[in-house]
Amino acid sequence: MEKNVILGSKGEKIIYIYGMSFQGNETAVLDGNGRVPFPLSFRKLVPNNEREFCISPGDKCLHLRRVCDYEDWVLKLKQLGNSDADNIKRVKILSRTARVVLDDKQNRFLLPKELKDWAEIDKEVVFLGIGDVVIISNTENAAPYALNKDDDFKGMEWL
Predict the structure, then answer these.
(1) Which of 16, 19, 52, 83 is at 20 to 30 A from 151, Cα to Cα?
(2) Where are the domains of the chain?
């Protein structure tokens, strides 16, 4: 992983890690205030000074990215062009609904109600690490991504 150290506005060192890859899956339970613990297996990949994330809607789920990764992703989306009406709509929805979340001293963060409702998250939460994004889903919507004995990975050896 490539690291880039810069100085923040208060002179603190900020380390950006490029090529970070979240992998695996974890489950957690929302508390009574709508907070969910950020699993240790993902948390240990993120330096303490980068515990600011952007959460946005996905396909019946939520996407959690580090703020710097989210900004890069939105720029890529914008580069797809303003001539595509569907793309313009996606950028507008993301700009309106995305939220910055911080984890607290107990490593929990609040799922905004609008986004929690969008992803139909009630109590149990599934975290799926996929590259620079962590998918947050309810158990039902995460089920298609579970390993199934009928899954066929033939032909993927070259990847």
Answers:
(1) 19
(2) 20-145
Where are the extended beta strands (E) located within the chain? 2-7, 13-18, 22-29, 35-37, 52-57, 62-66, 99-102, 108-110, 124-131, 133-137
2 vs 113: CA distance, rounded Å: 35
Q: Which of 85, 109, 5, 18 is nearest to 49 (CA)?
A: 5
109-152 tens-digit pLDDT: 899 999 999 999 999 999 999 888 899 999 888 877 666 666 66
Contacts of 95 (CB under 8 A, 6+ apart): 74
Helix (H, G, I), strand (E, B) or coil at 37: strand
pTM over 0.85: no
Q: CA torsion sign, 130 to 116 to 110 to 55?
A: positive
DSSP-H helix ranges across the chain: 40-43, 67-79, 85-97, 113-118, 139-142
38 and 107 in contact (C-beta within 8 Å)?
yes
Amino acid identity, residue 81? G
Phi, psi at 108, each rounded to 5°: -110, 155
Q: Which fold is adopted by the domain 20-145?
A: Chemotaxis protein chec (3.40.1550)
pLDDT in tens, 70-97: 888 777 777 776 667 877 787 788 788 8
